[in-house]
Amino acid sequence: MDSLALGADLEPEPVVDERSTVTLYVNGTATTLTIDHRSTVLETLRDRLGLTGAKKGCDHGQCGACTVLVDGRRVTSCLLLAVTQDGAAITTVEGLADGGTLHPVQRAFVERDALQCGFCTPGQICSAVGMLGEAADGFPSHATEPDAPSGGRADLGPEEIRERMSGNLCRCGAYPRIVEAIEDVIP
Question: Model's pTM, two decimal places?
């Protein structure tokens, strides 16, 4: 039987609006957008809001170049659908500074020269800020000593920092300086 004849009896599918209106609190500012359901947080930040700090590296959540903070927790924004974040507080590297004053992690990265080409740096900085918060809240990592007290601040030595930052890759190999910069801001 002819393949065209098989489809002749089918009704066309109704057109479904594949967009939704969401409000995102980006760097402290409420922004209401109508977005395609397939748009990621990264695409929304870069293409719709002009915030280009977070980078599209691998587009598979493996390199960390797109790391931002959502409700204070670090996420790979290339994998997170923006439509699922209605009402979320999103902080990008552009939103870490307080006016003209750099965030302590940003300042430490500059002072320690913890970057080379700079492509991964925004994601590294956002990840470091999130990681410091996680450690302060007592979240363990694979490197955390098994007898460490639960619920307390994790001991952030170089090995612990490297483990916690392992989701952020640097092609230039600035890792030693990144670890030093993070050590500089540990309270």
Answer: 0.87
